[in-house]
Every structure is written in structure tokens, then in C-alpha cells.
Amino acid sequence: MSLLAGSAVVTGGGSGIGRAIAEALAAGGAPVAVVDLLPEGARETVAAIGAAGGRAALVQADVSRWEDVDRAVAAAVRELGPLGILVNAAGILDGYAPADELTPAVWERVLAINLTGSFFACRRALAEMLPRGAGRIVNVASVAGLVGSGGGPAYTASKHGVVGLTRQLAITYAAQGVTVNAICPGVIATALRANSTRILGADAPVMRGVGGDDAAMRALTPAGRRGTLAEVAAAAAYLASAEAAYVTGHTLVIDGGWTAR
Ligand code: NAD
């Protein structure tokens, strides 16, 4: 399997799933722009890719701001060459706050990052990919993009939105060489709750949810364990490969059977 030729942009590449995907794409030969709001983690990802013999560049950006996304993709193309792959992994959790407790500020920030941020990055990447007639977009949705119980209403609505965005873009651009797919992880051990608390600041709700609760994780997951970063990264790398040219609009679950029930 070989990655589609070109550079890659990975939003949220400074931690967890985004970092694992950035490292996998770099190992597959793609120069990778690691785009993240929090620069410390992004610096570590860039260093790890360099230490493994790959090529990476850091771009600090907030994906919920169009100017930042525009600047980030432009910098990636300038420094690393024509864009082949976009992975939207930047995201935050709503702490599973129920609707009657969820503040308007948290609703707006979760939707702005998870959904609007994904749209902004897709839109900007398409401007690079469509003239070349080739591209791979992988949106990191979630099981919360397919069913309830994987988050609170803001997170669940945002991830259902990402799945809808993925399907619509896939249809629109299917004949132009650009595939658009989503991956839907179940429970993966990352710093999502800590990073979400930090990014939401004073607005942050208590971070409840399946991720920090072994019994709840086992109750929802037939496999009885969390998924690994490597398992998620391999799925994303497949969707970014040249061989996946006929796969578009797909939602690939990596969830230990959660949504098979
Ligand atoms: P993480 O916190 O380890 O990584 C998310 C990264 O996104 C962080 O580096 C964070 O700084 C960055 N980020 C957040 N807001 C940003 C913004 N506005 N602009 C740029 N960067 C921003 O968490 P993770 O679990 O690796 O999450 C990655 C993606 O996977 C998210 O979209 C998350 O919703 C999704 N996901 C996670 C799980 C899980 O169990 N961990 C399951 C399903 C889906």
C-alpha cells in the first residue's frame, strides 16, 4: 500500500490520534504539516517524525478561524510541496454535559472546532487538490457521529455533522479525484479530556464520559478494551492511500464492535 503522492496536513497533530496519524503518514513517506492550537505537543510530534527520519513542519493555528486555516494550508504547501492528504483530527469533548447543563458558550466552541473547523480545512484543502485532480481527505469523526451515547449533545451533534459533511463532499467531488471519508473511533486512550478542559478554559464542564470509566467502556465495547492509536492510524493511512481511490463517503468504524450492536 502506498500513500497518495504529495504533502499532508494533519490538524490536531500535536496529540493523540492526530499525532499517531501524522507519524504513520510520515513513515509512509509524506512530508507532514502538524497543525495544532497547542504548540508544545505539535513540537514533540515534529521532533518525533524528524527522529524517525521523516519530514515535518509545525504550524500553530486555531481551526475554528478561517484566517488560521488559510495560513496553515498555504504554509504547508509552501514548505512541504503540493497537498495530497488532509486529516482533520483537531477536536474537543463537551464532557458529556447533558443539554440542560450545557452552556451556550461550550456548545458554540465545540461546534466551531469540531464541525466548522473540519469544513474550513476541507474547503481550503480542496482549493489545492481540485486543480491537481487528486486528494485524500480523512475526517476524524467518532462513534458519536453515528449513534448517541458517545458524548454530550454538542459533541454528538458536531460528529454527526462531520459525517454529513463527509458524505456531501464525497458526492460533490467523487468524479474529480478527491476522496472524502470519515473514521469513527470508539474508546481510545488519549489526552482528549485534559486538552478539552484546557482549551475550553473557564467554560469547561467536568469531563465525564466513557473514556475515563472502565466499566462503561466495557459495557459499550464488545471487544472489552480500548482501541490503540496504531489501530486508528492504520485505518486513516489506508483511506489516504492510492489504493483507496474508489472508497469515498465511507464511515470506517474502529470501535471494537460498539456500533455493531
Ligand atoms: P487529543 O486531545 O489528544 O488531540 C486533539 C488535538 O486537537 C490536541 O492536540 C488539541 O490541541 C487539538 N485541537 C483542539 N482544538 C483545536 C483547534 N481549535 N485548532 C487546532 N487544534 C486543536 O484528543 P484525541 O482523542 O486524539 O482526539 C483527536 C480526534 O479524535 C478528535 O476529533 C476527537 O473528537 C476524536 N475522537 C477521539 C476518541 C477517543 O476516544 N480519544 C474517539 C473518537 C473520536
Protein model, in words:
- The chain has helices at residues 16-27, 39-51, 66-80, 104-132, 153-173, 192-200, 214-220, 229-239, and strands at 7-11, 32-36, 56-60, 83-88, 135-140, 178-185, 251-254.
- By secondary structure, the chain is of the alpha/beta class.
- It has one domain: NAD(P)-binding Rossmann-like Domain (Rossmann fold, 3-Layer(aba) Sandwich), CATH 3.40.50.720.
- The chain has a 7-stranded parallel beta sheet, with helices on both faces.
- Helix 1 (16-27) packs parallel to helix 2, helix 1 (16-27) crosses helix 8 and helix 3 packs parallel to helix 4 (104-132).
- It is globular.
- The mean pLDDT is 98.
- Bound molecules: nicotinamide-adenine-dinucleotide.
- Residues 11-12, 14-18, 36-38, 41, 61-64, 89-92, 113, 117, 140, 142, 185, 187-188, 190-192, 195, 199, 211 line the site of nicotinamide-adenine-dinucleotide (NAD).
Q: What is the CATH topology?
A: Rossmann fold
Strand order of the largest sheet: 3-2-1-4-5-6-7
Give the N-terminus to C-terminus distance in angstroms: 31 Å
Rg value = 17 Å
Question: Into how many domains do the coordinates divide?
Answer: 1
Q: What is the helix tally?
A: 8
Number of strands: 7
* Mean pLDDT figure: 98
Low-pLDDT sequence parts: none
Name the beta content range.
5-15%
The helix fraction, in percent, is 40-55%
CATH class: Alpha Beta
Shape: globular
What do we call the CATH homologous superfamily? NAD(P)-binding Rossmann-like Domain
